[in-house]
Amino acid sequence: MDRRSWLKSTSLGGSFALLGGLGVANALTPEEVIKFNPRPIGKPARLSSNENPYGPSKRVRDAVTATFNDGCRYPYPHLFELADIIAEKEGVTKDHIVITGGSTEGLRVTGLTFANGGGEIIAGQPTFLAMMTYAKEWGASINWVPVNKKKEYDIDEIEKRISAKTKLVFLCNPNNPTSTIIEKNKLKDFCNTVSNKTILFSDEAYYDFIDEPDYPSMVELVKEDKNVIVSRTFSKVYGLAGFRIGYLIARPELAKKLKKNIMANTNILAIAAAKEALLDKEFYQFSLKKNREAKEMIYKTLDHLELPYVKSHTNFVFFNSGKDIRKLHKQILDQGVAVGRPFPPFFNWCRISTGLVEDVTKFNQALVNIYS
Predict the structure, then answer these.
(1) How many whole angstroms separate alpha carbon 341 and alpha carbon 53?
(2) What residues does 228 pair with on adjacent strands?
(3) Are residues 272 and 130 in the same domain?
(4) End position of a domain, from candidates 235, 252, 279
(5) Cα–Cα distance for residue pair 7/13, rounded to 1 Å
(6) What pLDDT, in 10s, does the model give residues 250-298?
(7) Of the candidates 184, 283, 175, 306, which has an alpha carbon nearest to the alpha carbon of residue 237?
(8) Are 349 and 310 in contact (CB under 8 A)?
(9) Which of 3, 127, 329, 339 is the most exposed place for a label (fewest CB within 10 A)?
(10) C-beta atoms surrounding 26 within 10 Å
(11) Domain with 82 in it: what CATH number?
């Protein structure tokens, strides 16, 4: 079927055409709805913030409910228990773990700890801005290194720019918004080299979505006592964005410094949710499966519309819209779908999060309507 015919049939057939051609849009069973808690369809469909459209799982909801009676207590004993669980998962000691109010607090605390009062952070552009925005408020300067033509970190250029004033090098790997990863055979060598010169921060919020076999986490370098800090979150694959809980992994000396600047901490219900989420392997695998299905649905539409995109290692897709994202954002919103904000300098690119089958179908149909 040529592009024009496909557009015509899709526009007439609506959701049925988009879903039927892919063969992955199976409705959830009643049991799955209870266990995996799909988000109610929003108005607009929220595909703008890389949220997991499923969760908290039933197991997590039950664990949180059972913890209500402890709501009058301070969370510290529960916090220490979670630190032990995470330490065992990551293969380090609890002295390596810093639990934070979401990974965003971890990024901000790190920026404050190492760039307060001046100095420089080197970061790719575009990337997740939480650390850099906060660090600038405390007197740091940001040395931006544009991503390369493949939308990947230019690690050679980053390494060249390290100087005596560099307090920290920030990596978001996989990167937000480009969804790319650093080639695995180069990653460890690069991070090892950088950590001998300054602090290396590896934001691994989307690490769980990487399909490439044996892709390394930089926790490996933390275990080697390197100047590396790794951040993880419960917001994405575990579906706990609203609970605001994440953690950092760093050698004990660095972790101790970071703990001194923790401001928000977290709460007893979030701790209970995180503990149970780590045990709920069924939900974890379900989230990954549904994310892959949603990405394939998006790829199919983009291929037929001949809109270039980056193969994603995350729960979102970054595609070349061929028009200013500020205009496209409004056009899609008018059809009931919210997509990601502009990411300078790529104003002709759009970031679309994965979502429920119904959410993605709505996005696909909106895109077809706009480009037909």
Answers:
(1) 19
(2) 200
(3) yes
(4) 279
(5) 10
(6) 999 999 999 999 887 799 999 999 999 999 999 999 999 999 999 999 9
(7) 283
(8) no
(9) 3
(10) 10
(11) 3.40.640.10
